[in-house]
Structure prediction request, 360 residues.
Amino acid sequence: MTNPVQEHYQKYPYPRYPLLASVPRRDTYALNLKALWTRFNRNLPREDPRILIAGCGTFSPYPFAVANPGTAITALDISERSLSRARLHCLLHGRRNVSYICGDILDGKSIQGEFALIDSYGVLHHLDDPVAGLMALEKHLMPGGIIRIMLYSRYARREEESIRRALRLLDITTPAAARKLLDRARPGSRLARFLSVADETGTDCGLADALLHPRVRTYRIDELLELVSRTGLRPLLFAHAGAREDVAGEIERLRQLEKERRSPGNFVLYLGIASGNTHKTGLDSLIVLNPCLKSAIRGFTPGTIRIPARIGLENPPLGRQERGFLGRFAEPVYRSTLDRESAEEVEKYKKLLFLLEYYP
Prediction:
């Protein structure tokens, strides 16, 4: 039996970034395994933890490899063409800690072993059975491990889904045919406004992914929570733009927005399984700089550094004073040695994932 999603990505591997496109390591700070593990577990991962990118597309292995140069990464995708481009991108940039597997999340044979971090960004909503897909990933998550998912929000995808359904009704199945029709959109119309802000439609692969995909699901927040409840996973943190740090508070905020048929964007959520780790009271913790930021903070980059937000919170510009403070933690510092003002600053940067706290 043919898989329409596999056929789609064989024709239109996505995304279509230039092979020479590079990413500064500081911009990958939210992909660093050590940072994420300490954020949710307050300790360091065991020796030789692994990362799985489940549905890697053409690009994700590269920034993950930049963020985790000493970590074994497995990149899984259903499309051989997507994997080939992902492999080539990594090789051109000297990233060799990634292995590549062409396979299906649901086939039960493609994934082997346990992983400390599993990334499945923009994948589950394309599966025939998203619950089975998430349960399959859960089976390969080590205790204390983390899964990041992105799912389409019903209201963030409202325009795309209206256009996608219309194109299917018109039996338009190629980017060329779709573009010919879309280019005739009346100026000032909803369609014209959508096309003016939808950057991904500028390439055939992007247009195909946005408007010609054969299988798409969208979710309201309670449908997302129902999906998660079918597994043994629990929500740890929402990471879409503007998300509240408190999970319960963010869920309530999203419900209120949906009453107005609004959404802050697609859902980005970290999930995990309770690790059973406990810490003795009275132990002193260590504070250390996110490994991805070391060269930027301690280097000779002139002026102010601006790091794109990756976990929902806006990042402040890092001038000389801010970089000086963060540079104090290039090597681990015991919390007990901090004065009150420094401890408050540490809390701010911990929320941003710039500083990590863990028990030795």
Q: What stands out?
A: The first strand starts at residue 50 and ends at 54. The chain has a mean pLDDT of 94. The chain has 14 helices and ten strands.
